Amino acid sequence: MRPDWLSPELYPFESRYLEVNGARLHYVDEGQGPVLLLLHGNPTWSFLYRDIIKGLRDSFRCVSLDYPGFGLSQPGPGYGFTPIEHAQVVEQFTLQLDLNDVTMMVQDWGGPIGFAVAGRNPDRFAAFVIGNTWAWPKSDPGTQFFSRLMGGPVGGYLILRRNVFVEQIIPRNVRRKQLPDAVMAAYRGPFPTPESRHPIHVFPREILASRPFLSDVERGLASLRDRRALLVWPTKDVAFRDGERRKWEATFPDHRTVILDGAGHYIQEDAADEIVDAIRTWKTPAAT
């Protein structure tokens, strides 16, 4: 049953469920055509991609899942909400649905999670749409400060008790507009209690704690270098800047870069129409 905090006008998709690694995984599967797998970050869920799905489902089979503990997905017993566990779930999801010739779009934590899966299953992935994200260990001073602060006791209080990621970080990092109440309700909905916000708190800690996992993800990129890549990169993200963009461009020689001028961290909210247009333009030569 659709929760009352989720507007059917904003999110007019059929909810589907799959049992994966003990989790009840929620996903949407809309449209027909080449598979476009859409992976979210923190503290978002498939709702983040609603306008991109609406814009592309006439030409793509748009598949977007919620990691256990996010959106409408429920974790299994003992699930720790770490990126390596999320990657294992996404991998099994991909195998159970037998997704092939996949174009994968990633942003934020979707990058490490998605590229962990692609690196282990390169034959299933044809191309990538890369938003502001990374897929390697990061340890610059800003990253260390954020991970230790928000992944530690101070962040625990702010995230678990004050819901700061949803109430502050999301709206402040959408730079072009103010999010309507119904949109904010959809981001608040999955996290009504301090206990339900624990998955959000795990992610910042894991920026540093998951360095071995991130090193493995980086090594896996070598098997994907011949794939086509479209970068959709914002200019107003405080987390991922030109250095990460240039590294992605070097990783995928066959790339196109589209700059999303003025967009903040949550590019799917700030620049959905531009992303839809960029994907359509980019994919057209391969389809003709």
The percentage of residues in β strands lies in 15-25%
Q: How many structural domains does the protein architecture include?
A: 1
Could you tell me how far the N terminus lies from the C terminus, measured between alpha carbons in angstroms?
41 Å
Task: Decide which structural class fits the backbone.
Answer: alpha/beta
Secondary-structure element pattern, one letter each = EEEHEHEHEHHHHHHEHEHH
Number of strands: 8
What CATH architecture would you give? 3-Layer(aba) Sandwich
Computed CA radius of gyration, to the nearest angstrom: 17 Å
Tell me the CATH superfamily: Alpha/Beta hydrolase fold, catalytic domain
Question: What name does CATH use for the topology?
Answer: Rossmann fold
Major sheet description: 8 strands, mixed
Determine the number of helices (DSSP H or I, runs of at least 4 residues): 12
Residue runs with pLDDT of under 50 for 5 or more positions? none
| Shape summary | globular
Average of the residue pLDDT scores: 96
CATH class: Alpha Beta
